Amino acid sequence: MIRSTTLPAALLMATLLAACDYHSGEPEQGPAGTGPGGGQRVVAAPQDRSPAAEAFRQHCSKCHGLPEPESHTAGQWPLVVVRMRQHMRDGADTPSDETLQEIVSYLQARAGPD
Questions:
Q1: Where are the alpha helices (DSSP H) in the chain?
Q2: pLDDT digit string (tens) for 10-69?
Q3: Which residue ranges make up each domain of the chain?
Q4: What is the spatial distance between Cα 65 and Cα 33, in angstroms, rounded to a whole number?
């Protein structure tokens, strides 16, 4: 009786181990501010203390991790920022129009290729 259960148990264990190593084909993401596998990404350089960089870090990290400026083109960023402003929680410290323009300009200067 022991022999008849050994093979199925071994197959089940092999299947479970293989499933644990399965990747969906998408890069593994680390915490916000990190790239695939947890490696550092340059999002808003810590040494950049410009008002636009500070506004970007302050307002864009309230609800989610900071996006990579290269993730959109310069032409896409204005619409992305407007959409994100619409999604901000009621009563949240929403940025002024002037601050939003500073954030858009900051992102556009670091945007991905068109």
A1: 2-20, 51-60, 77-87, 97-109
A2: 544 544 444 443 333 433 344 444 444 444 344 555 568 889 989 988 888 877 888 888
A3: 51-114
A4: 7
